[in-house]
Design a protein that fits this description.
CATH architecture of the largest domain: Orthogonal Bundle
Largest sheet: 3 strands, antiparallel
Radius of gyration: 19 Å
Distance between the termini: 37 Å
Order of helices and strands: EHHEEHEEEEE
Number of domains: 2
CATH class of the largest domain: Mainly Alpha
Helix content: 25-40%
Structural class: alpha+beta
């Protein structure tokens, strides 16, 4: 992200510069609200500096409490409700459900050596 300049990039150029797929720009970043412009021919232009700032802010590291799991649908940490503890080989994890959307959530609790 630090290599992006304060200039307009096409989605393919920004994908090559950062190192991800151009499809990821169209399918993930633009629908999530990355800053972009469309010209009169409907071509998409993304300012490199604005994109880098948006990316760092949108994908900032989140710390969860012990009683929370991360919901990918709601994109936030939610409290575990009636977690059930499971053990699979060396892994101990809790399974619960998101109170907002009902998605099944898993959080690793410990690893047994």
């Amino acid at each position: 992200m630090k290599s992006l300049l304060n200039m307009k990039y096409r989605p393919r150029e920004i994908a090559e510069e950062v190192g991800f797929s151009v499809h990821q720009v169209y399918r993930v970043y633009i629908p999530l609200g990355c800053p972009h412009l469309r010209d009169e021919r409907r071509h998409i232009w993304i300012n490199g500096k604005s994109f880098a700032e948006w990316y760092v802010d949108f994908y900032k590291k989140r710390r969860l409490q012990d009683n929370e799991s991360f919901c990918l649908t709601c994109r936030t940490g939610v409290e575990k409700i009636n977690p059930k503890r499971h053990k699979d080989n060396n892994l101990i994890y809790d399974i619960s459900f998101c109170p907002g959307c009902g998605r099944k959530l898993a959080k690793i609790v410990d690893r047994v050596k």
